[in-house]
């Protein structure tokens, strides 16, 4: 355990070290960096974080982060409200939005089913997804969850909940990434991309 | 440029991204982490940083970070006030303190002479070091700066400033680290450790 020469410095290091991926050495570097900044800049830093937590809203429809009760995507009249893409978190929304390839709306689960971490279906926005489908005219659900055990479990759970509705349930295509070389692709990905081969229209 | 769904989130990402070594992706991860924490925890985080800048003091003698006008080391009657170790920053003080091998006091320069970065001798606590030596009974100055161009330049500059005083000027030993193997040591380090060989008393 290192001895810090000042209690306020130690407090700052402790707070920084609570952040994910930041150890005590990095935390000290960040605290010393803040010490070198102007008073008003450090005040802005601290107040921005407090403000973030205080004034952020979550969209009442898709649970995305927003400045208002309804997010920009749900409020946009040009978006196709009959197609709902189910994602884990806001990072996935940002990634998909960056592609400019999707014109529907989203539904954020807030996580994935993970018994190892004590996260069950009731901790996620799955009930609200079922309710949303029951009460709105929705034609297609696109499951866009990460291709790992948690993602697959969650996909299957949602599929079972939705199978009785008269909607199309799809999932994003898995396959060899553009620019990747076949010989270096892993067997499962390459296998799936052969099984799910599509008509060549190029 | 990524589009953030909320202005308060974007502000928080911008603030985190100002920290050294933190890019925009990590900044987003940190901001989303804060969003998941309790209100009072985020408030504590923000206020701790503001408090750090507001209430930190610098020791009037050695310029170390402290909660008071005089740091714990300078205030300690058991420390040898006649030996002053000159270091770049508080991180070096913490590293040397952790060795439990030094019982003197410190003098923090606040940086190293670096013309590339526009840092000259007047930006550092060198004048105050000379004044400290002129006005106090100091027998030895230990130069403990990093062994690179900036460190060597700074050492030489300080040496020239102090050479007329009747004090011993030393520098920390360079050599092969304990646990290192000779065959893998770089030539300069190994060369210096041969030139500066010491009597074997083991």
What would the keywords be for this entry?
Helicase, Ruva Protein, domain 3, alpha/beta, 8 helices, 6 strands, homodimer, four-stranded parallel sheet
In short:
2 copies of one chain form a homodimer. With 202 residues, chain A is α/β, with parallel strands linked by helices. Chain A has helices at 7-17, 24-36, 39-55, 72-75, 90-99, 127-135, 149-162, 187-195, and strands at residues 57-58, 65-66, 80-87, 104-108, 140-143, 168-171.
Verbal overview:
The structure is a homodimer of 202-residue chains. Chain A is α/β, with parallel strands linked by helices and 202 residues long. Chain A folds into three domains: 7-55, RecR Domain 1 (Helicase, Ruva Protein, domain 3); 81-171, 3-Layer(aba) Sandwich (Dna Topoisomerase Vi A Subunit, Chain: A, domain 2); 175-202, no CATH class. Chain A contains eight helices and six strands; from the N terminus they run αααββαβαβαβαβα. Chain A has helices at 7-17, 24-36, 39-55, 72-75, 90-99, 127-135, 149-162, 187-195; strands at 57-58, 65-66, 80-87, 104-108, 140-143, 168-171. In chain A, the strands form two sheets. Chain A has a four-stranded parallel sheet. The longest helix of chain A has 17 residues, at 39-55. Chain A starts with 6 loop residues before the first helix and ends in a 7-residue tail after the last helix. The mean pLDDT of chain A is 90. At the A-B interface, α1, α2, α3, β2 and α5 of A face α1, α2, α3, β2 and α5 of B.
